Amino acid sequence: MKKLETFGIKPHDADLKTNGKQWSVMEKLLLGLTLDQYIGQAFRNKFNWFLAIIFAIGIPVIIYRFIFSLGAVTHASYDYPWGLFLGFGLFCMVPLSASGFMLGTTVEIFGRHDFEPIERLALLNGLLGYFFAVVYLLVDLGQPWRLAYPMVYSFGPAAVLFLVGWHVATYLSVQIAEVSTAFFEWIGFRRGYEFIRKGTIGLTVSGIILSTLHQGALGALFVYAPGKVHPLWYSSAFQWIHFFTSSIPAGLCMVISVSTVVIYTMKWRCDKRFIDNLDRITISLAKGAAMGLATYLIIKFIAIAHDNEWAYFATGWGLWWLFEIICFVTLPMFILMYGIHHRIVGLCRIGAFMTVFGILLNRLNTALIAFNWKLYQEIPHMWEIIIAITIFAIYVATYRFILARLPILYQYKSQAEEIEVEVSEEQVAPAKA
Amino acid sequence: MSKISRRKFLAGSVAGGAAVMMTPAQKSFAAGSFEGFPEGMGVLVDLTRCVGCRTCEAACNLEQKLPAPALPFDDTSVFDEIKHGQKRRTTDKAYTIVNRYEPKGADEPLYRKIQCNHCNEPACLTSCFVNAYKKTPEGAVIYNSKVCVGCRNCMIACPFHIPAYTYHSAINPVIKKCIFCYDTRLKEGKPPACVESCPQQVMTFGKRKDLMKIAHERIKKNPGKYVDHVYGEHEVGGTGWFYLSSAPFEEAGFDTSLPKEPIINNVKDFLAIVPMVLTIWPALFTGFHLLATKGKSHGHGDDHSHDEQEGH
């Protein structure tokens, strides 16, 4: 894309071409490039080759899983019924996607329109994260075609998973509605856009409710296994609070991380508003994340005190727990605070990446590493790891595909607005004359 | 404050409370304390009588039409099998397992039969989001494979590591576990196949409450022989199958750290906040919105007219 820009070619970002004609959907899909130009840049991009290699290996393995069962790609463990697909795919992707409701709340509920340039990125991050959490779930379920059973066929309403299922499904629809505004703008369906915009407050508030409950519920799922999760990662009273509180810095830091990747790799797609505001917004988001981390840290220790688990610190598990808490909660918190105080955006970004890693470590610890601590630790099957990576690569590819097209990082110049601009210019012109 | 207004106030709060209760009702109806069906059947397993002949394993295999095992049932080398540092466990091809343990200071090994303990308030049942499990009035915990989605939450929840999964089926993987021979025997009042087959009368079949009395009588009559504890009387809310042992239970591979309360009690804290969030959040956050945007435009800044005004 950079190379094309040197030839003066600009990506598509408005309803009308410079000559006043409308773009067709096909032209929009090709980013306003000709087919040859598009294919040319796609082949030049090394990252595409990297993705292609992952897909070439991983997609056949996924097909293999559906033909030859879960037992063929996992260890088929009775003691570790949940492996990487849920341990990583569900329990990590969902907190990292809390960004949608966080930024939705900030902008729409608290009226902080100064966060607006990044709101859509946060909403999209939320939507895709949840969507791919469900994809991971579909790969992991024994009978994925029965996914809708808890909704329509057979109800187990006392189960936490019932709540998770319902909420993730509802929240996914809420997020589709929230992100659809960008899509409606892009295809030029103004009425749909306005219809959804009217319900923004309702959508955002339902987003908060659903998020509070299912982020917490993911934690509460482990409360079913008091003897299995190591006491340091387990707390019957606080588990849901831990998962909910940590999802706040997780979502915010994921937005910082994604925006960092975007600004370094897809700068051509960002408009001036996004680029100019990003540093300021990064620091503001980092503030939120640092406060979230501080709260999380305190509650973590309250839970240890509540169950009087200090003695475990003298064990290997205790050291592992301290490693997680010191290196990936406390340290990023101080890095963020230093970065905020001295307004060093780079440090905030490092802190954000570390926080994201800390969340991954915490969820994997709870779901896999410290799970069955009295039995044994299981290393996931090779193919299970490959499938997990492949789905993540599909997630990245989808993310990039959408960012390149929909008005997420840039503001869309709709037909109506452009005509207005022209009209006002015309009005100004005679006045000058 | 007059009496009438107080009464009105109370009536109002009761109505409000009732309204709140309506919402979560569907989410928490199973969260009461339940101590098992009064006429529920159970089995008392006396480990001191077991000689490790594995006849029960063979009987179960036959009754449940399970595939033949790799080693015959009279092969005792299976007692030395160690996988991931663990002794054998129940699988999708074996609903019951006998393991050998060597308690400290004992001359003879102790054998322990493992199968589903048929909890009074089963964790598998309460964790299932499609209600595939059922605790029958006869005392069995049975499973309906027709509705199972395959999330395997029951395997996570079971404190005894019992349910197994047919991972190797691509089309119809299901949970496999002991069902107390419900379909073929228990329904007609007959004892399960393993109990009937035992040559040592390790297991006694009967009403749970009667068996519990027998268990305590045995301990009373032979205080030197038994540990003064019936494993399963209170563990995770009480189980349909319970054990007597001559050695401390942890030395026979039992998890003695399990809570006395049913597993679902741990989850009640969380389930209790669900109605709160559902009812309080909408008002709270709409209120925040109104407060935060008072005097400002309620509209969204998509027309970007706010960007300049509201400062950064």
Count all strands of chain A and give the number: 0
Distance between the termini of chain A: 42 Å
**Overall form of chain B:** globular
pLDDT averaged residue by residue of chain B: 83
Give me the number of helical elements of chain B. 8
**Which structural category fits the helices and strands of chain A?**
mainly alpha
Give the arrangement of secondary structure elements.
The complex is a heterodimer of chains A (about 425) and B (about 300).
Chain A lengths: L1 H5 L18 H5 L5 H10 L1 H23 L15 H7 L2 H4 L2 H11 L6 H25 L8 H4 L7 H28 L2 H9 L1 H21 L18 H27 L6 H35 L9 H26 L3 H25 L12 H24 L9 H18 L1
Helix pairs in contact in A: 4-17, 5-8, 5-16, 5-17, 7-8, 7-12, 7-13, 8-10, 8-13, 8-17, 10-11, 10-12, 12-13, 13-14, 13-16, 14-15, 14-16, 15-16
Chain B lengths: L2 H26 L12 E6 L8 H9 L33 E5 L8 E5 L8 H5 L5 E3 L5 E3 L9 H5 L6 E2 L9 E2 L16 H5 L5 E5 H14 L19 E4 L19 H29 L13 H4 L3
Parallel strand pairs in B: 1-9
Antiparallel strand pairs in B: 1-8, 2-3, 4-5, 6-7
Helix pairs in contact in B: 1-7
Give an overview in words.
The complex is a heterodimer of chains A (433) and B (312). Chain A has helices spanning 2-6, 25-29, 35-44, 46-68, 84-90, 93-96, 99-109, 116-140, 149-152, 160-187, 190-198, 200-220, 239-265, 272-306, 316-341, 345-369, 382-405, 415-432. Chain A has 433 residues and is mainly α. Chain A has one domain (45-411): Up-down Bundle (Formate dehydrogenase/DMSO reductase fold), CATH 1.20.1630. The radius of gyration of chain A is 23 Å and the shape is globular. By secondary structure, chain B is of the alpha+beta class. Chain B has helices at residues 3-28, 55-63, 123-127, 153-157, 193-197, 208-221, 264-292, 306-309, and strands spanning 41-46, 97-101, 110-114, 133-135, 141-143, 164-165, 175-176, 203-207, 241-244. Chain B has a domain at 41-119 and 190-265: Alpha-Beta Plaits (2-Layer Sandwich), CATH 3.30.70.20. The chains are: A mainly alpha (433), B alpha+beta (312). Chains A and B meet through helix 4, helix 7, helix 10, helix 12 and helix 14 of A and helix 1, helix 3, helix 4, strand 6 and helix 7 of B.
